[in-house]
Amino acid sequence: MKHRLKQGRQAGFTLLELLVVMVIIGLLAGYVGPKYFAQIGKSETKTAKAQITALAHALDLYRLDIGHYPTTEQGLAALNRNPDNEPKWQGPYLAKGVPADPWGRQYLYRYPGEHGDYDVWTLGSDGTAGGQDADSDISSWQ
């Protein structure tokens, strides 16, 4: 019996098939990518809102103990260090210290506040007042 060797095309992808797949992957990345990165900005905003809420609770506890909020000069650091040796200070009022905002900057604090008893805010991802979306300011009075 004679064995015949089949001569034929080798299995594989053509250049055209590879180009079609690459175009489809590019289209998917172009559609999904912006939606994914928009979610990252939303999570940082949510984190900042949660941290400001925690700071507000700590400031209220401080006021209950001392009788007044920390001055602007004392700042949020008064939540973890006894400012000016206040005899009624029962802190620290934050277990892990005053956090930085999600963009690595310190939260801004003012007492007395323009929008309430005190104001706590961050300037968003761009670090400047105003802005939209991830660049917008996040504050205790919003």
TrEMBL record:
Gene Ontology biological-process entries: protein secretion by the type II secretion system
Localization terms from the record: Cell inner membrane
Key words, A-Z: Cell inner membrane, Cell membrane, Membrane, Methylation, Transmembrane, Transmembrane helix
A GO term from the CC aspect: type II protein secretion system complex
Membrane disposition: Single-pass membrane protein
Domain Type II secretion system protein GspG C-terminal: from-to ranges: 36-141
Transmembrane feature ranges: none
Superkingdom of the organism of origin: Bacteria
UniProt cross-references to NCBIfam families, sorted A to Z: IV_pilin_GFxxxE, typeII_sec_gspG
Membership in a protein family: Belongs to the GSP G family.
Name of the protein: Type II secretion system core protein G
